[in-house]
Amino acid sequence: ARMGRTLVELFYDVVSPYSWLGFEVLCRYQHIWNIDLRFRPAFLGGIMQATGNKPPAMLPKRAEYMLKDVKRMAKYYQVPVQISENDFQRILRTSTLGAMRFITAIDMTKPQYLEPLSREFWIHFWSQHEDISQPENILAVARQAGLPSELAQKLLEMISSSAVKNRLKETTEEAIKYGAFGMPAVVAHFNGEPHLFFGSDRLELLGSVIGECIPN
């Protein structure tokens, strides 16, 4: 972490609308809160499987609440998440493994594109309701995020490499080791230990905890 800054890691998957909300809030507050924000693309499917968690929409009452909740939060945080009942089926049908490997590949090669690329994936999936599992859609997302086309093509080839697959798997396992069971999983490092905050509705708490502790 840079001098006097609290290292905060954000583990996320673009399949998760709450991760998008958490991502935008942390992007906005990183300078106010004096945090060293690190984006950690991980795979939500792997976390769910390892911890026995189920998508919130599997519980009808919770699905009903989630529709209202995401709409309220989207409005409050001014993030263009568009959610409807059809999205629950769409999520179960779509794998973001390719997208998360693509994002992992950018993290390994050109991390300066990590923020705009991740955001663009959320926009395509959650605002424009596109299928981001197809290679041509992944390339369209990359183009919108400002990646040169030769770089995007190279990254697309990288997603089937063991280096990228292993990196995503390791990051996912790291999140689980910190105690994550869903996304977003935000890990703040202070007083020499990691502190896990789950979800996008605990970020004010995170800010207050960081404000009260003296970074090492």
UniProtKB/TrEMBL annotation:
<comment type="similarity">
    <text>Belongs to the GST superfamily. Kappa family.</text>
</comment>
<dbReference type="InterPro" id="IPR001853">
    <property type="entry name" value="DSBA-like_thioredoxin_dom"/>
</dbReference>
<keyword id="KW-0808">Transferase</keyword>
<dbReference type="GO" id="GO:0005777">
    <property type="term" value="C:peroxisome"/>
</dbReference>
<dbReference type="GO" id="GO:0004602">
    <property type="term" value="F:glutathione peroxidase activity"/>
</dbReference>
<protein>
    <recommendedName>
        <fullName>Glutathione S-transferase kappa 1</fullName>
        <ecNumber>2.5.1.18</ecNumber>
    </recommendedName>
</protein>
<dbReference type="InterPro" id="IPR044088">
    <property type="entry name" value="GSTK"/>
</dbReference>
<dbReference type="GO" id="GO:0004364">
    <property type="term" value="F:glutathione transferase activity"/>
</dbReference>
<dbReference type="GO" id="GO:0006749">
    <property type="term" value="P:glutathione metabolic process"/>
</dbReference>
<dbReference type="InterPro" id="IPR014440">
    <property type="entry name" value="HCCAis_GSTk"/>
</dbReference>
<feature type="active site" description="Nucleophile">
    <location>
        <position position="16"/>
    </location>
</feature>
<feature type="domain" description="DSBA-like thioredoxin">
    <location>
        <begin position="8"/>
        <end position="209"/>
    </location>
</feature>
<dbReference type="InterPro" id="IPR036249">
    <property type="entry name" value="Thioredoxin-like_sf"/>
</dbReference>
<dbReference type="GO" id="GO:0005739">
    <property type="term" value="C:mitochondrion"/>
</dbReference>
<dbReference type="InterPro" id="IPR051924">
    <property type="entry name" value="GST_Kappa/NadH"/>
</dbReference>
<dbReference type="Pfam" id="PF01323">
    <property type="entry name" value="DSBA"/>
</dbReference>
